[in-house]
Amino acid sequence: MKIAIIKYNAGNTQSVAFALDRIGVSYAITDNPEEIKAADKVIFPGVGEASTAMKYLSDKNLDQLLPQLQQPVLGICLGMQLMCRFSEENETHCLNIFDETVKRFEATQINKVPHTGWNNLKQCKGWIGPEFENTFVYFVHSYYVPINQYTVAQTDYIAPFSAAMEKDNFFAVQFHPEKSADIGEKILKQFLKN
Amino acid sequence: MLTKRIIPCLDVKDGRTVKGVNFEGLRDAGDPVSLGALYAKQGADELVFLDISATNEGRGTFAELVKEIAAECTIPFTVGGGINSVQDVDRLLKAGADKVSINSSAVKNPNLITELAKEFGSQCIVLAIDAQLVNDSWVVYTHGGKKSTDKELFSWALEGQQRGAGEILFTSMNHDGTKNGFAVEALRALGQKVTLPIIASGGAGTMNHFVDVFKEGGADAALAASVFHFGEISLPHLKSYLRDHNIAIRN
């Protein structure tokens, strides 16, 4: 199995790479369209800022390629947000795989932003099976995707939001499976099974 | 529900953990990689590795070590100590660190926070503040608590937030090392000033201190070192104790 991890300007792709090392699958970290197209599975990780990341993707023509991929694609954190239509983070037009808008959390004294730490998954279905109901995963983000028709797991913070999504061959998680201990590893394996 | 985080902190010098760590079943307690992995297995929510090397050589060793930690560590970890520039952060994040904490360098050059947040995102920038209560004012200190500054805790934390820090790690020098509990009142006041997550540090001695820091202090995370390293408090015990006190804790 060949896995392509999309290379980013700002993003700790290395953490995803190490998680795959621990699982024992091989991968290439790449922004080469041909290599991405040829991969069996594609992981689209990301931390950082939306408009900078989109600019990098369009400079590499990956903004055209990614929505057309046929193999299973997993977006992580910023990767998931960029798979949406539009992000309020610097008013950024994104990949429009999921026709949804990414919104900013409104901070209060009780609900700090970024949403940082371990929170539980609810109403798990689709590729995030019911075995993950109420398991804890690690989040760190200031923007979120509201609940929508593609939501397959949700988490409560200020309001319920999409913790995971699915549409055809596109899978996405707002949390960091690569940093979510044993549960995160199981979720990565779940994706790799697709 | 978002849970409160327990964060063991490991001081590393020239690639080895300092402070005598006494653990059964750990072949090499001086090895930060195995100790980190053990804490992760025991239920730590995050880890902090603080480089206290005094030499460039030691700092180089630390950067290499970060790679080894990242390869093993299945939970998020922050690295700090001697970080002065965008290049320093770039190297550490590329090695696999999830966050960096900055302290003295940010006081000296507050614009560093702005630059780092812009370059890498707020989520990986922890502003560490060491402060001491002097004549009713929380004075910010740098260089491991050796140098006082003209900054004050609350306004400095707020400036950090405005410049794009993603978390505040507040160490009370009055409480650090005392094992008499965290700076609960100052933490509560800090929580009313900023809307960033706050990591409390300094003063952990008993499991009840952790109850207080979350319930009374309103902290989002609590950091401690020696109580964990010397086995005075075990992580699994602490977590079930906090759960029994109705504090949201990851299982």
Description:
The complex is a heterodimer of chains A (194) and B (251). Chain A has six helices and 13 strands. Chain A has 194 residues and is of the alpha/beta class. Chain A has a single domain (3-193), classed as Rossmann fold. Chain A has a seven-stranded mixed beta sheet. In chain A, β5 and β6 (92-93) form a beta hairpin. The longest helix of chain A is centred in the last third of the chain and has 13 residues, at 181-193. Chain A is globular, with a radius of gyration of 15 Å. Chain B is an alpha/beta fold and 251 residues long. Chain B has a single domain (5-244), classed as TIM Barrel (Alpha-Beta Barrel), CATH 3.20.20.70. Chain B contains ten helices and eleven strands. In chain B, strands 1-3-4-5-6-9-10-11 form an eight-stranded parallel β-barrel, surrounded by seven helices. In chain B, α3 links the parallel β4 and β5 (99-102). In chain B, α1 runs parallel beside α2 (56-72). The longest helix of chain B has 17 residues, at 56-72. The interface between A and B is large, with 38 and 37 residues.
**Number of separate structural domains of chain B:** 1
Largest interface, with Cβ-Cβ < 8 Å?
Answer: A-B, 38 and 37 residues
- Would you state the CATH class of chain A? Alpha Beta
Number of helices of chain B: 10
Beta fraction of the residues of chain B?
Answer: 15-25%
Shape of chain B: globular
Question: Considering the protein shown, what is the CATH homologous superfamily of chain B?
Answer: Aldolase class I
| Regions with little confidence, pLDDT below 50 for 5+ residues of chain A | none
CATH class (first level) name of chain B: Alpha Beta
Please state how the strands of the largest beta sheet of chain B are arranged side by side.
Answer: 1-3-4-5-6-9-10-11
Note the run of SSEs of chain A as H and E.
EHEHEHHEHEEEEEEEEEH
How many discrete structural domains of chain A? Answer: 1
The helical percent of chain B reads: 25-40%
- How many distinct beta strands of chain A? 13
Q: Largest beta sheet of chain B, briefly?
A: 8 strands, parallel, barrel
Major sheet attributes of chain A: 7 strands, mixed
Query: Which structural class fits the helix and strand makeup of chain A?
Result: alpha/beta
Seen as an oligomer or otherwise, the chain set is heterodimer
The shape of chain A, in one word, is globular
